[in-house]
């Protein structure tokens, strides 16, 4: 807690970035077919074209730290939502120009960055688009950016229906998440604001590398999913089993962290719910499935529903694609 207070005080004198390089990429018929909306750009050049349909919902993909337009998470999620192009516009909140900054500096600038993304999104609102059609899906640090966008829009009297967080980053954010757990929503007003239930009408979170330094190890959504326990993933056994994990810890952690967007993308591509999960008694990091024999169940991923019983859910995946146990 003391560390969080010290860092918060430091935030007041931290360098504020110029966010003129933030971009919303509106995808057309393929991954390399897109139009950019910049801070000084005009949305009229995009609206009503193959890049944006006012009648559709919009998937807003938000990548993580040290990532950009060409990262695997963007390619994977774009490919998944492309299978639903009849109902979804696909937009990327590209902050790659700032994602490799010194970590603390980056964290302290996320609020301002989210403000600027909201400025860009409001250009679509000015043209007549209903921002409640926007569905942010954020990975890693991008999950916290998604939460900030939702929170800012909520303050502007627009509550998003849903936000999905894919293994939200835990470095320093675990302190903030713990503060929220103790003090509730009032504890989530620091410069290190995490994704949290209330940022949208429904917030669902997939944890795949919690407890390690990459992922948050506390529940933060209306529903939180902890596949394979939420710490390391079966698909990563090559580098996550003893003794190899001792000298392959980075590979193990990266693989488990990335698993969140691979699981989610598989659910988007599915025609039906494919990651059934069991409600657990503990609403936190799940070390054993023994506490997860509750009668209630929920679907992880795209088909997660706001009608599900609030809490933490456990499920087991396959070691390789398809990851759903239905196959």
TrEMBL record:
Protein name: Lipase domain-containing protein
Any single Pfam family the record assigns to this protein: Lipase
Organism: Chironomus riparius
Domain Lipase: residue ranges: 48-323
Transmembrane annotation, as ranges: none
Family statement: Belongs to the AB hydrolase superfamily. Lipase family.
UniProt entry keywords in alphabetical sequence: Secreted, Signal
Signal peptide stretch: 1-16
Any single GO CC term annotated in Swiss-Prot or TrEMBL for this entry: extracellular space
Subcellular location: Secreted
MF terms (GO), sorted A to Z: lipase activity; serine hydrolase activity
Principal location listed in the UniProt entry: secreted
InterPro entries according to UniProt: AB_hydrolase_fold, Lipase, TAG_lipase
Cited Gene3D superfamilies: alpha/beta hydrolase (3.40.50.1820)
Record-level GO BP terms: lipid catabolic process
């Amino acid at each position: 807690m003391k560390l969080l207070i010290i860092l918060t005080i430091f935030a007041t004198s931290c360098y504020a970035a110029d966010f003129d390089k933030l971009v919303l990429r509106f995808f057309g018929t393929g991954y390399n077919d897109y139009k950019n909306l910049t801070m000084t750009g005009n949305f009229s050049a995009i609206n009503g074209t193959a890049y944006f349909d006012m009648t559709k919902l919009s998937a807003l993909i938000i990548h993580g730290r040290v990532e950009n337009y060409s990262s695997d998470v963007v390619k994977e999620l774009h490919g998944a939502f492309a299978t639903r192009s009849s109902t979804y516009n696909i937009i990327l909140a590209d902050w790659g120009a700032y994602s490799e900054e010194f970590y603390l500096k980056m964290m302290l600038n996320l609020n301002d960055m989210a403000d600027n993304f909201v400025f860009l999104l409001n250009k679509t609102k000015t043209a007549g688009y209903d921002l409640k059609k926007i569905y942010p899906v954020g990975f890693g640090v991008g999950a916290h950016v998604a939460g900030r966008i939702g929170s800012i829009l909520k303050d502007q009297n627009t509550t998003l229906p849903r936000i999905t967080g894919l293994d939200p980053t835990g470095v320093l954010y675990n302190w903030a998440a713990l503060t929220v757990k103790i003090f509730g929503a009032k504890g989530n007003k620091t410069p290190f604001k995490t994704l949290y239930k209330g940022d949208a009408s429904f917030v669902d979170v997939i944890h795949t590398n919690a407890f390690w330094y990459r992922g948050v190890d506390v529940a933060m959504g209306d529903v939180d999913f902890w596949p394979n326990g939420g710490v390391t993933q079966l698909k990563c056994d090559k580098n996550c089993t003893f003794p190899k994990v001792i000298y392959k810890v980075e590979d193990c952690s990266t693989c488990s962290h990335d698993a969140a967007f691979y699981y989610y993308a598989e659910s988007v591509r599915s025609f039906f719910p494919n990651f059934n999960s069991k409600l657990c008694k503990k609403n936190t990091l799940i070390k054993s499935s023994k506490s997860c024999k509750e009668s209630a169940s929920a679907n992880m991923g795209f088909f997660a529903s706001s009608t599900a019983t609030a809490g933490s859910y456990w499920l087991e995946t396959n070691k390789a694609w398809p990851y759903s146990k239905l196959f």
